[in-house]
Each structure stands twice: as C-alpha cells, then as structure tokens.
C-alpha cells in the first residue's frame, strides 16, 4: 500500500491521528471491532489503558493475519464508554499506540458509547486497512 497522510495547515494540528489518509492498494481489509478479549474470550485489564492495549493488539493481530502491518491502517474508530477517561489517559494511550503500531497514524475518531457488547469492556477499536497485492504463490 502507499499511503499519503494529509494534514492541512488550515486545520488544528493533529495529535495521534491524521486528518485524512489517501491510500492506494489492491486489497481492502475491514477489521471488526476488537475489545480486550483474550484468547479464552475473557475481558482482561482493569483500567482503560490495559484494555486499550489488549484491544489494539487484537486489532493488529487480525490485520497481520491478513498480511498487513500497522502502517496499512487507513481508518480506525475508537468506541469508548467514557471519553473523559479516554482524554485523561491520552498520553499513556498514545505511548501504547506508538509502541504497538508506530507513528504512521490513520484517520481516527473517538466516539463515546453507552456500553459495548461485553459489559466489562471499556473500549473497542475497529478499522479499515488498504494492503498491496497478495504475496505470489509458487506454482
């Protein structure tokens, strides 16, 4: 994939996201919402940062299984049960993002929701990635 991050000077400087991403590739991957579920289907992490780290890790695991890397993410939506709590943890969440996904930020939105499917979940991330051509298979 080639991705051009567009951050117009007429808009507020982005912190931890890009205002727009122009992506060119051959495959689009729609990533389902991921919460802090572990492999056994249990929510892990008491607080938002721990749950965010697990949810982001889950999203990236699904992306990697499709042949993608974090830089292929064109769009991510964060669904949080408490945006004030999310804002309060923003510096730590930013470090978690950079540690797991790097600094090629997708276009992002954070949306407050009343609750998520799993009642213990505090955050859910979904995304869209644009990948290059699939690896060729030998004949």
Description:
With 139 residues, the protein is α+β, with helices and mostly antiparallel strands. A 4-stranded mixed beta sheet has the order 3-6-4-5. Strands 1-2 form a two-stranded antiparallel ribbon. It is built from 3 helices and 6 strands. α1 packs parallel to α3.
Name some characteristics of this structure:
single chain, 139 residues, alpha+beta, 4-stranded mixed β-sheet, two-stranded antiparallel sheet, 26% helix
Lay out the secondary structure:
Blueprint: E1 2-6, E2 20-24, E3 27-34, H1 48-65, E4 73-80, H2 83-88, H3 90-101, E5 107-112, E6 123-131
Parallel strand pairs: 4-5
Antiparallel strand pairs: 1-2, 3-6, 4-6
Helix pairs in contact: 1-3
What is this structure, in a nutshell?
The protein has three helices and six strands. It has helices at residues 48-65, 83-88, 90-101, and strands spanning 2-6, 20-24, 27-34, 73-80, 107-112, 123-131. It is globular, with a radius of gyration of 15 Å.
